[in-house]
Amino acid sequence: MYYLVQNERLTSFNYKGKEALENMVNGERNNYLFNAGVALAIGLITASLIFGWFYSRNKRADEAITVTGSAKRRITSDLVVWNAGISAESPTLTEAYKQVADGMPKLKQYLLNKGVPENQMTISSITTTPQKRQDTEGNDTGVITGYSLEQHIEVRSNDIQRVSQVARDVTELINQGILIESKAPQYYYTQIGDLKIEMLGEAAKDAKERADKIASSTGSSIGSVRSAKMGVLQITAADSTDVSDYGVYDTTTIEKDMTAVVNISFAVN
What we know:
The protein has 269 residues and is an alpha+beta fold. The protein is built from four helices and eleven strands, in the order αββαβββαββαββββ.
């Protein structure tokens, strides 16, 4: 009887101990699963935050501001190129040649008298063009009826005002029976190369200032330069609004406006 009671108590104890052990194991398992779930959730949240940060940063890095900067200078031509020519027409080649040969020395002497140095003159060779008869329908018959001869003198000088005045007055030779053709002087600025570099720097500075204003108006700031492209150079008559995709180089005026343009893309921070 004693042993039976003892066995029942032992069995009861063992049963309760086993139950307690199972409860403890189950509790630890639940705690483990709970902690694992919490850790996983924290990991997912952290990963989402990191991914979001990188995505936002990369998206921000893709943003850019593209602006056009310009710089303008008023320049004065320092070189004038002027051409004048003697022409003659005659039924005979000899007579036409005589007229040109007599007229060119007079033109040269006229320029010398006006203060144009001889080393600024270049005399071309004589060009001869046969004149041919045409039929009633305007077709060339091949029959020579005369000759047209021309000879030109080119003046290249830094004395802009003197040569410009001579170009206006040279038609006085017509009164001496000399058939002269005077072309309009062409005016150039020979320091474009050096000035162009300086002005491109000014245009880039202007582009940066424009980009700064645009970015600051949206609460951002500009970063590094993404790309830069130089536009065509525009050299126009003073106060002119003429522009061209291929660039403009005005040679008809002494005073000119030189404009340099750059297109720059800045990263946005």
